[in-house]
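Memo to structure team: turn this sequence into structure tokens by end of day. - J.P.
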Amino acid sequence: MWTEKYRPRSLDEMIDQEEIVQRLKSFVKEKNIPHCIFAGPPGTGKTTAALCLAQDLYGPGYQEHLMELNASDERGINVIRETVKTFARTKAMGEVPFKILILDEADNMTSDAQQALRRTMERYTETARFILIANYSSRIIEPIQSRCAPFRFTHLPEDQIRKRIEYIAEQEEVAVTEDGMKAIIDLGGGDLRRTINILQTAASTGKPIDEETVYSVVGRANPADVREMMLTALNGDFIKAREKLRELLLKYGLAGSDILGQIHNEVFRLSIPENWKVRIIEIIGETDYRLMQGSNEEIQLSALLAKFVEAGEEIKRES
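Reply from structure team:
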């Protein structure tokens, strides 16, 4: 996996998150860290930062002083009472007198498990430090939050993601076109792990990575095709717009809800009056509800295009 192959191995190699990296480096310099909560969206470097911190703190043999658990899989109270407590109670050997326990996806732990963890953190502070990683820190109980130093990770900026894609593409000798690069970044949505996975999947085709290749491998319709379908309907050609819809369903093998989500995104890019964007979004919401209730996808999406045709006629009259 390229996500593991190109994962930073020290805090100096971390991408963006400069303020967080500086704070963690100060812990390494002092050879002492508090309990921590790393919170933020997926793919922003939370787990990587914890591993880099451990590697910088302990050196090459850092695995001996580290335990990593995925709390979404091992989320019960027995894991805290047995696995975590057994690890935490034994003293570390070496210059750093404590070990580090990383609990990934800690926000998925049960309430009872979090209460047990709270007591373990209190009792074994001298021999273990806990790094809790969560997408939503609000799901972690307040007594644990008050005992931890908070670190808030944010989505990575586009220029940093672009540099990383270019670096990996160069190392793997993969050709990426400009439109392919933009498609990968758009689909990644600031999640670097997802972005690299998309790049690797597109590279597996053995062809230069362009926009069409990217959208085909991730199972998403090209936004230009979706926009063309919407504009065709707004211009009054319902039959042609419906043909385009069927082409998208067959070409990309998408579910109706997937195309509806892309239609929703493209509405905000249309050059139509603001009040009509509001009305169309309301219609899309109604269509989404009907799809969730099990209605026929093609019928509901065709009905949506019919509403686009009516909206286009009304907009022309108003203008």
